[in-house]
């Protein structure tokens, strides 16, 4: 007969099973804590160091480029880019023509004929 009590009898679980449960939970929580610490503190520090190195190298390259390229070369490059982008646009007549076409058949109107009558 059902008494309404649902429980677990822990007396049938031996010590070896408890050891497996406790060690397994310790491993899982230690792994989660390690991942949290890596993502919270390790990656930002690594990215900050990496970004500083990248910024230094880019800064050196920019300084070298400014030293090597004379001003008249920069002006020639800018003028070439300006002319290139101006040639991309076509000259159009700016006249829009709309032709109306009346069609009696439409796939949307034919859907009505394919529907079933449930009367």
Summarize the structure.
With 119 residues, the chain is mainly alpha-helical. It contains three helices and no strands.
Which keywords apply here?
single chain, 119 residues, mainly alpha, 3 helices
Describe the protein:
The protein is mostly helical. The protein has a domain of 77 residues. It is flat. The chain starts with 14 loop residues before the first helix and ends in a 5-residue tail after the last helix. The model has no long low-confidence stretch (mean pLDDT 78).
Architecture blueprint of SSEs:
Layout: H1 15-68, H2 71-87, H3 107-114
Given as residue ranges, the uncertain stretches (5+ residues, pLDDT < 50) are none
**Helical coverage, percent range:** 55-70%
Specify the number of helices: 3
Structural class: mainly alpha
Characterize the main sheet. none
